[in-house]
Design a protein that fits this description.
The complex is a heterodimer of chains A (about 475) and B (about 475).
Chain A lengths: L5 H10 L4 H15 L6 E4 L1 H16 L10 E5 L26 H8 L3 E6 L37 H8 L5 E5 L6 H7 L2 E4 L20 E5 L2 H11 L29 E5 L9 H16 L3 E5 L7 H16 L18 H12 L2 H14 L5 H24 L2 E5 L15 H5 L6 H6 L3 E9 L2 E9 L4 H14 L9
Parallel strand pairs in A: 2-3, 7-8, 7-9
Antiparallel strand pairs in A: 1-3, 4-6, 5-6, 5-10, 9-11, 10-11
Chain B lengths: L2 E12 L38 H13 L7 E2 L1 E5 L9 E5 L8 E6 L5 E13 L3 E3 L8 E3 L6 E7 L6 H18 L11 E11 L9 E6 L2 H20 L7 E6 L4 E7 L9 E2 L6 E2 L2 H9 L5 H12 L3 H9 L1 H14 L2 H18 L11 H12 L5 H13 L5 H8 L7 H13 L2 H9 L3 H18 L6 H13 L1
Parallel strand pairs in B: 11-12
Antiparallel strand pairs in B: 1-9, 1-10, 2-15, 3-4, 3-14, 5-6, 6-9, 7-8, 10-11, 12-13
The chains are: A alpha/beta (about 475), B alpha+beta (about 475).
Amino acid sequence: MHNKSVAELSRELESGKVSSVELTQQFLDRLKAEDGKYNSFITISEEQALAEARAADELRAAGKATAWTGVPFAHKDIFCTNGIRTTCGSKMLENFVPPYDATVTANFKAAGAVCLGKTNMDEFAMGSSNESSFYGAVTNPWGLSSGDKRVPGGSSGGSAAAVAARLVPAATGTDTGGSIRQPAALCGITGLKPTYGRVSRYGMIAFASSLDQGGPMARTAEDAALMMNVMAGYDPKDSTCIDREVPDYTATLNEPLKGLKIGLPKEYFSDQLSPAMEEQVRNAIREYEKLGATVKEVSLPNARLAIAAYYVIAPAEASANLSRFDGVRYGYRCEDPKDLMDMYTRTRAEGFGTEVKRRILVGTYALSAGYFDAYYLKAQKVRRLIQQDFINAFKEVDVLMSPVSPTPAFKQGEKNTDPVSMYLEDVFTIAINLAGIPAMSVPAGLVDGLPVGLQIIGDYFSEARLLNAAHQFQQVTDWHQREPQ
Amino acid sequence: MQWDIVIGLEIHVQLATQTKIFSGSSIAFGAEPNTQANAVDLAMPGTLPVPNEQAFRYAVMFGLATNAEIGRRSVFERKNYFYPDLPKGYQTTQLAQPIVGPGYVDIDLADGSTKRVRIHHAHLEEDAGKSLHEDYHGMTGIDLNRAGTPLIEVVTEPDMTSAEEAVAFARKLHSLVTSLGICDGDMSQGSMRFDVNISLKPKGSDTLGTRTETKNLNSFRFMEQAIAHEVERQMDILEDGGVIVQETRLYNGDRDESRSMRSKEEANDYRYFPCPDLLPVEIDDAFIEDARARLPELPDARKARFKEHYGLNDYDAGILSADARLAAFFEQTVEHGKDAKLAANWIQGEFSARLNAEEKSVAEAPITGAQLGALVTRIADNTLSSAGAKKVFEALWSGENDDVDAIIEAKGLKQVSDTGALESMVDEVLAGMPDQVAQYQQESDPKKQKKMLGGFMGPLMKASKGQGNPKLFNEILVRKLGG
């Protein structure tokens, strides 16, 4: 069962061959037995999962089942879950049990899905290797056989590793600068970062509010489409959420790709990309040509500025977003504070990890009097230029394709002492968040036995087209079916 | 040396919306601590603000009432600082693009002149919670019921030159926002709070002096005292050759003293930036016109109408039109009481005196305008003497009885105005006082005669058991004695 997709499990449940309680128990048993190798979960919510499974079986018996009723999955531990601890990968929230559900959480509950637990992540979603989690690093299931412990990417590394290791068929993720796509690429799974505003951010703990977006992580594009059917939609609780009709994302998966115009941004095929990676990506693009697509080179002239702009805007927003973690109302509070200032400084010094503190300091600096114009305002101008580059490109082509990451999964400890080299992991993904457009990561090959991701970038609200392009590719390739050895 | 005083005000006005500016919690005053604070107000992780449309409507109404430009695109920013009663660690407020742009208010001064005070801008923002330092055994309690209450902060130009002008402006603003119905105006509950910026400069100088800001004054009286206190403090320093330190000060009204809260150097760097959780709000013509259509009569127009329609003088019209609820009470009284001047006198006299004595607002008054109107009617038609009217008022106020005529009946306060009956009483009394009658008739000075009439009134009132109409008694006496 653990090798089946969401769509397949849904059919198994529908046929009555297995109940949700049986399925859930099987997945829980496997999760508990296997996750020691990966550390992909922070919390396993067995009791609640079995209760949800029983409720799902009752719903199905009553003839009220949806595609998700009784299907197990997991949430990144950034989505608030009523009554289940939500840590955001931080010591700061080690004891935090939200009294409310994120909208995404509520949507999956309403669809009858069974949440097995909360997946590991970089602390407050800040990282590209899942080494900044207070709950320990996550190990990529790929490359383990060669004795190396490799990173799963980040920040949604727990979700990516869990899906790759077949512990769950699907998991939610969030993507602020590449946090769905890069781990999906490094773990050989399929991930989608939707258009900013397509998925509600309510109850999704904020890192950088203008960039954060929740999205699906699964093994197939079809499963990602099934997740989008649950996740996408207007939410009056999120003022930045866009009120726009949600299509059935599975309905257009089988549209032919003949005539699809693909653009290759020349800036994303630069010397930052290893030749072996480039070869895999170009092979994948040739598959698209075989499916009837045409390919041309395009330019995103300001893309090279994306990392610099991102590392001003994201930390600036984060510095304010994380001010609420002050030890006053919930979460970690230092022992025996001697006064208010002592409580603030020690609570935050002890409760946050190194990378989080680094970004709070960077963001605070960028917003300070005398620096605001040179950093924050300049970065916002760059952001508009980057956005315009994409708008121009989509006048010429339907989708853009590129690598997701410059290298395959690297070894744990290799980059986590050098923040700049870690930040460069997201060189191909960050501009997409700044522009607010959707993009996918699709398994597209192996280099040295490690997965390579193809990034498919679309215009605003083109998720259905991206999923269609990914699904058609998955009909003629089997990279998404490969299992870590 | 002679000094010019320069005063600018910042006024926080709590908007009388049903719910908070960014959450669905109630903003009613006085609930148990933290019972009106939901996950958004507590800044729980992942929660997001949703703007309250009514707060925008009220702010636009304020802008229209103060002749201001309305900001067509208004942007919320985060003002970052740490304080335990500020749950998010930042206040959501407006800075570069406020909802209300430059405007003005005209104030009336005691010498009968009017003065224009310019408003720099007014912006929407959320209130903080309250830190409670008592009753927690050395710890601080945090009550977040108030956190997220919508405010507009009104910032004036430094156009005022005395405590009198500043207070006149503050009262005018109070009158405006309560008339608009956008604020309950309850100063004792913090519905309006004033920060006063004060500086001095040598008389006639064009260069502004260094200013101080005195924060959080919540009554007109404290504001007046605080200004007087601060002007004197600055004058003493300057005349001793000292310099004013730019700082924020706190004024203690009970002790009439102030102390420095923080200097400019200690001021926070608030690191304002646009709030990414809230998109810029576009205010279109339709929204503005809708707000305009909701504007009630404003105090200036009401004052003019009171003069015109009820024949009130400028002073009475000014007092009665300033407070929307007092104005409504007055109009209700007149509706039931016909005589506007008499109604105005009773409201400014007995009614206001009782409210002040019991520290009650008009809304809390135990009598209605209709009742006072009925009382005024009985005074005007001579049913009641002024002494009798006071007794009726007392009975109404204490709740002893709520019907004016019933009180008059029960207490036997009806004046006797039957001329025949009064004439026979006069005849009787005069017959019993022949010496005084003779004295009166021999007196040639009309002034002394008038005085002597008083000597007959006592016995007459006694004879009528206090119910004879004194005015009629007087007329009859003059006629009979003169005859």
